Amino acid sequence: MNYWLFKSEPDAFSIDDLRAMKGERDHWDGIRNYQARNLMRDQMKKGDLGFFYHSSCKVPGIIGVVEIVKEAYPDHTALDKKAKYYDPKSTEENPRWMMVDVKFKQKYPNVISLTQLREVTSLVDMVLLKKGSRLSIQPVTKKEWDIIGKIAGKQ
């Protein structure tokens, strides 16, 4: 099993929005970074778990957990001229962008804030905490997953 971190601005799509979706699941579209796309396409598997991270908000941080329920497939928003994430270079024959389907698993009672995460010395190597790390999808190690899970359990 692999572990991930999915970033989303709560004004655009929050964990509560996911929870409100039919079946508490939705596609994770709009990824327009090749490194993040490659992680989704090449490494994400059905059954993997991910932290849901609220970014660009008053208190950025991890707010819950999602499960990958459908592996990578072409992102249809890249083909839709009216969509925010339209890409004229993407075609049905040669899709440039991928998405996965995620399902709500758990919402934490409180955000595990970025500040709080930075204070945990055993998380110093976490991709999220590295300078210049802006990927909207990031890998999380099993050790990091377990540490953050323990923090969430103490809330």
CATH topology: ph1033 like fold
Number of domains: 1
Helical residue percent band: 10-25%
What is the total tally of β strands?
6
Under CATH, the homologous superfamily reads ph1033 like domains
How would the global form be characterised?
globular
SS-derived structural category: alpha+beta
Please give the radius of gyration in angstroms. 15 Å
Give the DSSP E fraction (strand runs of 2 or more residues).
25-35%
**Per CATH, which architecture?**
Roll
Mean pLDDT, to the nearest integer, reads 95
CATH class division:
Alpha Beta
Indicate the multimeric state: single chain
SSE order: EHEHEEEHEH
**Strands across the major sheet, in which order?**
2-5-4-3-1-6
**Low-confidence parts, pLDDT < 50 over ≥5 residues?**
none
Give the termini separation.
25 Å
Sketch the major β-sheet. 6 strands, mixed
Query: Helix segment count?
Result: 4
Set down the secondary structure blueprint.
Elements: E1 3-8, H1 15-20, E2 25-28, H2 34-42, E3 49-54, E4 61-74, E5 98-113, H3 114-118, E6 137-140, H4 142-153
Parallel strand pairs: 1-3
Antiparallel strand pairs: 1-6, 2-5, 3-4, 4-5
List its traits.
single chain; 155 residues; alpha+beta; ph1033 like fold; 6-stranded mixed sheet; 4 helices
Commentary on this structure:
With 155 residues, the chain is of the alpha+beta class. The protein contains four helices and six strands, in the order βαβαβββαβα. The protein has a six-stranded mixed sheet with strand order 2-5-4-3-1-6. The two termini are 25 Å apart.
